[in-house]
NADPH:quinone reductase
Amino acid sequence: MSRAVVYEKFGGPEVLELRDVPEPHAGPGEVRVRVTAAGLNPMDWGLVARPEAAARFGVTLPSGFGYDFAGVVDEAGPGAGYAVGDRVHGGALGRAVADFVVVRAGDALFRTPDGISDEVASTLPVAGSSAAAALAAVGLRAGDTVLVGGAAGGVGIFAVQLAKLAGATVLGTAAEGTFPFLRELGAEPVAYGPGLPDRVRELGEITAAIDLFGTETAEAALKLGVPPERIATIAAGPTPPGGVRATGGADAEPGALTQIADAVAAGRLRVPVAAVFPVERIRDAVALQASRHVHGKVVVTL
Ligand SMILES: NC(=O)c1ccc[n+]([C@@H]2O[C@H](COP(=O)([O-])OP(=O)(O)OC[C@H]3O[C@@H](n4cnc5c(N)ncnc54)[C@H](OP(=O)(O)O)[C@@H]3O)[C@@H](O)[C@H]2O)c1
């Protein structure tokens, strides 16, 4: 037997249970990963809380939980292209927070470079690819001044640093208490909420914007005269207002995640991990992530 976090009804963190489940095994072209860390994302609890969101992703009850994972290959089927002992990270929808996940080698599975812990590797897939996709959607280039909405969150920490590495100046929205965190990350902070366009204008001219929270930042950028093709959101559904681009992790360029992992391994990009919980405390981990005021990533260990 092995353990997995599962839920049998929709609801809040209280519906999540750590259960003994049969051990899965790798078939041809598959690997079994002994998961040691799982990074959390809003979609994880979003699927648990909202049946309509679960249906959109093809999730049915009872379901496993989580998407991002990292660990070590401990079974490799024929033709999988990985060997027992390889360190990997990747994504497995509704299955990641478990002692073992079985994934096809062609699915979202990446080698973990030396120099990155599993805890950090488990934060990369969703947030890293979403940040890269958002910056690519607006054609970010050196010399830009980009406004990042929700800059201190799981996606924001990657977006801010990737934009800086690309040679942009970064303004980031946050609550005032978060300003020191954002400055340390390399962004000039600006408070979200009513009056945002005026506060941004006082800081200077922006040339692009990515909204990682909803539409407030996108709308502020439109008001400040940024062309809609230089504004993107990952958090407003498929048709955001004003011709703004909708994007998400699935749109990331192939190779984007490997570049991010390499930048982390080389010390050019750091991943603030706000909290690490043992899997027995999955409900606390999810409640913290769902507070929407986390700075960086929340990780569960197994
Ligand atoms: N489409 C995709 O592929 C995709 C992929 C990943 C994420 N997403 C979506 O993108 C969003 C961000 O994900 P995430 O992982 O970064 O979330 P997160 O880690 O939960 O974001 C937390 C951050 O949001 C900030 N925040 C709270 N209220 C805010 C407000 N009113 N305006 C602006 N920022 C606010 C907080 O800053 P303070 O603490 O300073 O308040 C905190 O740092 C979520 O809605 C998620 O579902 C979409």
Notes: The first strand starts at residue 2 and ends at 7. The chain has a mean pLDDT of 97. Residues 2-123+271-301 form a domain with the Quinone Oxidoreductase; Chain A, domain 1 fold (CATH 3.90.180.10).
